[in-house]
Amino acid sequence: MIYLTLWGLLIAALGGFYRVVVGPTVPDRIVAADAMTVIITTALAVLSLVFENGVFLDIALAFAILSFADVLIMAKYFEHGELHK
């Protein structure tokens, strides 16, 4: 059942990647990128269950924090066109 969950997360991530590449507007791409980071973080948590290794949870936590900051930076950049104000 866990492997089915991982396949479902992979398919969802591919759908998000498609929206990042093809998305009609910039906000659509930002939201899709944020959704992909949530899906990847969840996949890392499930992988920690599969391999019975807590290191994947540490990686998932670090990835989630960095992706949150990345989405904020992208949103500010695309809203104002620059990062230094």
UniProtKB/TrEMBL annotation:
GO MF entry, a single one: sodium:proton antiporter activity
Presence of the UniProt keyword Transmembrane in the record: yes
Transmembrane segments: 29-50, 55-78
GO cellular component: plasma membrane
InterPro entries hit by this protein: MrpF/PhaF-like (IPR007208)
Domain of life: Bacteria
Subcellular location: Cell membrane
Similarity-based family: Belongs to the CPA3 antiporters (TC 2.A.63) subunit F family.
Protein name: Multiple resistance and pH regulation protein F
Organism: Thermovirga lienii (strain ATCC BAA-1197 / DSM 17291 / Cas60314)
Lineage, top ranks: Bacteria, Thermotogati, Synergistota, Synergistia, Synergistales
